[in-house]
Amino acid sequence: MSTDTPSDDMLPDEPMIDSDVIAPAPVSEWEAEEQERLERQTAEPAQELTVEQELVLTGGPWPERDGETMIINMGPQHPSTHGVLRLMLELDGEEIVRAKPVIGYLHTGMEKTGEELTYVQGATNVTRMDYASPLSNELVYSTAVEQLLEIEVPERAVWIRMLMCELNRMSSHLLFQATNGMDLGAVSMMVYGWREREEVLRFLEKVTGLRMNHNYIRPGGVAVDLPPDWADDVLALCEVVEEGVREYETILNENPIWLERTVGVGTITTDECLALGITGPILRSTGYPWDLRKTMPYLAYDQVDFDVIYTENGDVFDRYRIRLYEILESIRIVRQCVKLMPLGDYRSQDRKITPPPRARIDESMEALIHHFKIFTEGFRVPAGETYAAVESPRGEIGCYLVSDGGPKPVRMHVRGPSFYNLQSLAPMVLGEMVADGVAVISSVDPIMGEVDR
Amino acid sequence: MTDADDAREEMHEDEASEAPARPDDVVAAAVLDRFDGAVYRSSLGQSVVYVAREQWRDVLEYLRDEHDFVQGLDICAVDHLVDAVRPEIAGVEFERFEIVANLLSHSQRRRIRVITQVPESDPTVPSVIDVYPGLAFAERETWDLFGIDFPGHAGLARILMPDDWEGHPLRKDDAPARVPVTFKGDPAPR
């Protein structure tokens, strides 16, 4: 091993008797230590417990490290960062003293793309922003376009939109339950969450043709009417999801490990939320029942009966509970939608905005022209500007739309709730452990497609 | 263009010409009283106040403190370089950029929109992150995508684009990765 000359005390105690035997190779310090350790461990009393060798297994207080901090990067390829969020964490030991979210890794210039697409095509673009709740994006965009056009959407379209958005809220919150469980180590929750979400997505696929990125809600109404047996499907899936939610309650609500990881972790106050422009479940978890569906109703939310879920503590556990019970409220709304769904048109009959039915194209010259114009040039929207907002599963999603009278918007800006909610990370992880940082990121439920747009 | 389209446009133009009238919106009226040169406009039923750039921060602070607009939801910019039509608003001198802030009052359950004009030659707007800290990301985004500076914002850095990116992609004359070809009379390289 080493060529160090052995010191005297390292040499064997007894002098060599046989002088003919070549003296053993010089023994290094390391080898001597190994030898000594081996002898000690194989000696007779080695297996007996001794009092002097007491080990403290719980760790105990760490030695004070005055002013010595370390900055580490978490992400952008970290499994708990929900895509490509990067967090710069300044750590004092295990404690987070500063956090800075770094975003932009998923920036695809959707707002720029939105300026190049006609109003007809725009819904395909915005639906890809918040890919966990695409229908909210489509709804807010379509609402903004309809405000500029000053058209009324038929009653049935309003209710279909509400039904679909609530189903989407369910699927989005179920996805949260799955990923939140996965992030905190409750891996069975991941499977359960996705199991129930699939039920919802199956119905969305049946109606819109796609599991995600539906392009279903369009300016003027919705793309297609509901299939004939939709009510049975919806009621059946509500049963399944409701049963699932009860299961999650059983698994998690009183689970000591779960409570240990979530209760009192990553707290935020109402004032902080209001100052930081945070909306949705995070704001409601601080004991502030602000939900646009209730407080500033759009669609037909003022005609259905539901409660706004809110809690007092503003920690990770509360945000989990709010999203869990919002699923049940959405089921309530969906069941009322099934009961109250009106008959009639599913999209505006304004031929300048909605394409004519397929059959009319063969028999009417005008219908053919309208169809052609809508899908090539698009319809013109009067000059003006508007801001529309709806409550997405993550908070207030807004769309600021500016038109110059042409078929394409001058500016299409989407206020993504996740973009603003991410700012809550910094105050929430302050003073928490690194592992709790993961719980906090998960509880914000950011969708990076919407953050980076 | 059909008759229906024309009718719709006329409707919007009528609205624009009504601008200098006294607003029936209490908050907007208070802003108009307090700040000289502010202009109120009802845009499709939504309250919009046009203010001068120097008053920008004061107006937002006033709305937050006196009228309980607790949440500054959003700030974004609009580039009006190549607008085909830009309806006149009496009392507002248009510039190339507009900065738009959307505020929300929970107690009154209403919104208000504050807009200021920003010239191309001096694209700066006072930062409002001491009024609404949540708009820090939004101001960074506006700087990143439009190149509008917010003096007073300490950490104004690119947020969506890479740090070494050149240009501001949401400007109408920004043409990333395109070979510059000059056409006479064209407002932007395409």
Q: How would you sum up this structure, described in words?
A:
- The complex is a heterodimer of chains A (453) and B (190).
- Chain A has 453 residues and is mainly α.
- Chain A has a single domain, classed as Orthogonal Bundle (Cytochrome-c3 Hydrogenase, chain B).
- Chain A is 46% helix and 10% strand.
- In chain A, helix 5 runs antiparallel to helix 12 (316-340) and helix 7 (230-253) runs antiparallel to helix 12.
- Chain B is built from 4 helices and 5 strands, in the order ααββαβββα.
- In chain B, strand 1 and strand 2 (46-51) form a beta hairpin.
- Chain B is globular.
- Chains A and B meet through helix 4, strand 6, strand 7 and strand 8 of A and helix 1, strand 3, strand 4 and helix 4 of B.
In short:
With 453 residues, chain A is mainly α. Chain A contains 18 helices and 8 strands.
